[in-house]
Amino acid sequence: MTARPLIRRFGPPSPARGEGVRFGRRSYLDTSTKPSLPFRRRRQLFLILLGAPALIYVLAVAVWPLAQGVDNSFYDYSLLRPTKTAFIGLDNYRALWINEEARRSIVVSAIFTFSAVAVEFGLGLGLALLLWRDSLFQRVCLALLLIPVTVTPIVVGLMFRALLASDYGMLGYYISAWGLSHPRGWLGDPTTALPTLVAVDAWQWAPFMALILLAGLKSLPTDILEAAEADGATSFQRFRLIILPMLLPAIFLALVLRTMDAFRVFDIVFATTNGGPADATNVLMIYAVKQGLEFFNIGFAAAIANVMIICIAIFSFVFIALIRRADKRANEL
Prior knowledge:
Blueprint: H1 3-10, E1 21-23, E2 26-28, H2 39-72, E3 75-76, E4 86-87, H3 91-98, H4 100-130, H5 136-145, H6 147-150, H7 153-163, H8 172-177, H9 193-218, H10 222-230, H11 235-246, H12 248-263, H13 267-272, H14 284-294, H15 298-332
Antiparallel strand pairs: 1-2, 3-4
Helix pairs in contact: 3-15, 4-9, 4-12, 9-12, 10-11, 12-15, 14-15
């Protein structure tokens, strides 16, 4: 008669909050407690922690030096007198337009960029059309053409400097002996140094242009080309009226990538001529490096680098707008 009251009075204590009640082999958890963060917030936190190392790397390697360069461009900052740094505003940018050597380097960079990209586009388009058919011979040729792209630009510059040297070069010696070049070679003549660098740059990057254009050609619908051929259209008509308009997105993509890279060329010029002879190949990047690392004028060099970034950004925006317009026209066909 007294067992039930004793059990009720002296029975097992109630489980603590968040703990389960075990009967035999089964455990019943107390569901009154909730996790501290919902699943959506925990997933967001996990993704943030997963991308944090990459974000920190980008901030430390790209964003912070860029911000530091923008800040240095507003100061008269020289490593020869680092304690006498003074804020001068836009004077470094004004000096960039007033200095005749700086203006000449901008012109040389523009000429090199336009010439190199034009030559590489012509060669790349021709190679892409020749390699359009999918056969074993075309695949082997494409693999061989991509070898120059894999070589480091500084190595390409050193290689052509050795080949075109007028005194010991395998090509330059005979070219100079036959009277086809200046006694100092093509790279030693102010009139032929820049065209020679354009040819060297085209040798390395024309296959890259061909690869992008070939990918665009491979993506073209064949039924339209077959219908045009059945209607009696010639090869030139098919290329001008069908292939070229539909290939414009790939063309603009190749042009924007090569324009951005050619405008900031440094390795090939540094390894071959270092801006000479007589500043004939003194591109903007070479001029900035000389101002920063030879004359230790960090503020002026930072201003030159910022002008290059602005020019590249303008090129990118223009090409992106053209790509979107060409893409819309291609979709309408």
